[in-house]
Amino acid sequence: MGEVVQMHFTTVDYVIFTVLLVASAGIGLFYAFSGGRQRTTQFLMADRSMSCLPVSLSLLATFQSAVAILGAPSEVYTFGTQYWFLGCSYFLGLLIPAHVFIPVFYRLRLSSTYEYLELRFNKMVRICGTVTFIFQMVLTGFDLWGAVLAMGLVCTLYTALGGLKAVIWTDVFQTVVMFAGQLAVIVVGSSQAGGIGEVWRKAVNGSRIAGLDLNPDPLERHTFWTLGVGGIFLMLALYGVNQAQVQRYLSSRTEREAVMSCYVVFPCQQIVLCLGCLMGLVMFARYGEDSPLKKGYCSQIYMVLYFVMDVFRDLPGLPGLFVACLFSGALSTISSAFNSLATVTMEDLIKPHFPSMTEAKATLLSKGLALAYGLVCLAMAYIASIMGSVLQAAFSIFGMVGGPLLGLFCLGMFFPWANSIGAMVGLVAGLAMAFWIGIGSFVMRISAPTPVPLLNTSALPLFDNITSTVMTAVVSTTTAKRRPTGVEALYSLSYMWYSAHNSTTVVVVGLIVSLLTGPMKEKELTPGTVYPVLGTLLFFLPERYKEKLCCVTPLAHKVTSYSYS
């Protein structure tokens, strides 16, 4: 595949590609050397001065990673447009973070989401949450990173020097590049196929246009329920409690701007999803059932790249734009990973032990951490590229960490009587369940006597390496002709339900253990750490019963903005 790409790359393509890297590095360097505030650790929070639009485009860029650009079209080409119903999960997947998680985090003036765990439970729970997150971020999502070493160095440079402000503004630039690249492919590809009407006709004839599948079976890979309901939990794990995303909300000037950025992301995500699906249909119109995969021209994950090089064969510059678009996706994902890893390490693991550290030293250390994580991730990328797909499958399993983390935050935020022992045991149970199902389903697929249909190795692309969803179709299952029973049925659970299943495990186990070990009383809670959802739902109960259930404490007052002396 490398040769095919090389064959079509002209000087113009290399120029476009280099311009993207130079522009990204330039933005980082500009923010590194402009303004005195970058010399404090607030550079990790962009001085909490960002407005709504750049924050929302940055949220989108992290979400729309390189795996998304390659994954969605490949998924639709192979399995049809059922995947589009994932868009239904965006409604609640963004409304709940906007009106539940953001107000709680913003009003507590946090720098790291895991600070919340200490305020609500204790330091031990916070450290466990932080370590789980670091484990997840460093180990997941290396599918395409072997190819991005030079780019990774650029990215490490601008993240380490420029902080979150540089990350957000380069994300904005990269989002524009990504949209341009995808649109170019769709327009040129559909015109070569004979127009969008012809593309649609071929897709209908090829049974690639899926209707509403209301089959409630949780073992089915994609149905309306797995995508529309299971997807909500994936969205919450990403947009509700993930450090890389929450850090962007907290960089907003006001709580209202943070909430607005959630609303602005929503239509953008729908556009991104539609573009991915359209590109898959254009691919189908071009190749039909006679795919380059069957001919052995390329592997599944590179199919979209092959298609792009094929479509743009006679158009110098456009392959460069698309590869720049891909690299943008990877850049934004990696840069947010570096920045959020530096923040949680600093806030959760270093500052508590060195309270007297000067601001100048702390800032230097933060920049050093961002650099160190960058180099560790590049080393991991190199190892992954050598060891190949087995390691990618193993790394994908580590992506299941997102579900249990979501469960841990929900346990603390919605259930006032949950205590720290319950939180710890719940998190361990959720992680154990996640790994049990993940490894079990992977082993079951490998040991299956019949050949499993080709699955999309980058399925569930829209979430990439920052949530449970990186548990891609490498370990997702297809329903066999014989319906699985017992433990097999658990292993055959649709990968879209992993996040919901694992977060529910944490909440249920956490509540049972909390009730057995002595639930927390209202006066023991840190004010503002519990969202009064139970009080709202149980409005019909008399006040004294509500008090017994710890359902009476309201949230803290709105913080209009942060001010620094």
TrEMBL record:
Compartment annotation: Apical cell membrane
Sequence intervals crossing the membrane: 14-33, 53-72, 84-108, 120-138, 144-164, 176-196, 222-241, 262-285, 321-344, 364-384, 390-414, 421-444, 495-516
Database matches in PANTHER family: SODIUM-COUPLED MONOCARBOXYLATE TRANSPORTER, SODIUM-DEPENDENT MULTIVITAMIN TRANSPORTER
Function text: Sodium-dependent multivitamin transporter that mediates the electrogenic transport of pantothenate, biotin, lipoate and iodide. Functions as a Na(+)-coupled substrate symporter where the stoichiometry of Na(+):substrate is 2:1, creating an electrochemical Na(+) gradient used as driving force for substrate uptake. Required for biotin and pantothenate uptake in the intestine across the brush border membrane. Plays a role in the maintenance of intestinal mucosa integrity, by providing the gut mucosa with biotin.
KW Lipid biosynthesis (keyword) present: no
GO molecular function terms noted in the UniProt entry: monoatomic ion transmembrane transporter activity; symporter activity; vitamin transmembrane transporter activity
Name of this protein: Sodium-dependent multivitamin transporter
Gene Ontology annotations of biological process type: inorganic ion transmembrane transport; pantothenate transmembrane transport; sodium ion transport
Quaternary organization: Interacts with PDZD11.
Membrane topology note: Multi-pass membrane protein
